[in-house]
Amino acid sequence: MKSFADLAASRREWISEQLVPWCRQASFRDLVEAEQDWGNFAGRVDPGMTLWTWAWSRFPAVIHDGMPGLNETCEVRLKIADGRDAVGFPDREASSRGQIVLVARTEMGFEQLGPFRIDEILVAELVESAAPRDEPDARPTTVLPLETPPDVRI
User: Fold this and answer.
1) Which of 23, 35, 58, 79 could make an SS bond with 123 (beta carbons 3.0 to 4.6 A apart)?
2) Rounded to whole angstroms, what are the CA distances from 33 to 27, 48, 57?
3) Per the domain annotation, does 55 fall within a domain?
4) What is the DSSP letter of 50?
5) pLDDT tens figures, 93-110
6) Is residue 106 in some structural domain?
7) Given its phi and psi angles, is residue 30 left (phi above 0), alpha (psi -120 to 50 degrees) or beta?
């Protein structure tokens, strides 16, 4: 390395080509072990913002592109290794350290499903909305009389 810029480029390359791909395929046990020494690997960063986000990126349906943490805005279907399916919205507060909790709609309201460990999940996919969204009617244009004072016009 001849310069700091070379060193920084080398580290960015190592993170993108080695560390992130490792996180995407590592077992739950290895991820928990890595979390203990994460500062030595990734620097002074929050493992939740890097390690666990990178690990969850193996399932694009549960993350935001370019944002850390789980995506709570989209309903997902998880296919679990033991044959169960779980459908709901990821709960960032209840989910932690490689375990995801879903909030599912029920006839009585809502219930939590899980937690499901990252290495128990075979597939995570987005659930398409069954009902098409109705667009609201266009608001009619309001026409004010010419004599309306300017301070009343908004």
Assistant:
1) 79
2) 10, 14, 19
3) yes
4) T
5) 999 889 999 999 989 899
6) yes
7) alpha
The domain in which residue 13 lies consists of: 4-126
Domain count, the chain: 1
H/E segment holding residue 111: strand 109-117
pLDDT category at 69 given cuts 50, 70, 90 is: confident
Q: What is the pTM of this model?
A: 0.71
Size of the chain in residues: 154
Using DSSP's 3-state secondary structure scheme, residue 124 falls into: strand
- Which distant-in-sequence residues (6+ apart) come within 8 Å of 32 by Cβ? 97, 98
Considering the domain boundaries, does residue 95 fall inside one?
yes
| 74: Cβ contacts below 8 Å, ≥ 6 apart | 61, 89, 126, 127
Side chain identity at residue 47, one-letter code: P
Q: Is 69 helix (H, G, I), strand (E, B) or coil?
A: strand
20 burial level (CB within 10 Å; 0-12, 13-18, 19+):
middle
Residue 67, classified by CB atoms within 10 Å of its CB into exposed (0-12), middle (13-18) or buried (19+), is exposed
Distance, CA of 33 to CA of 96 (rounded, Å): 15
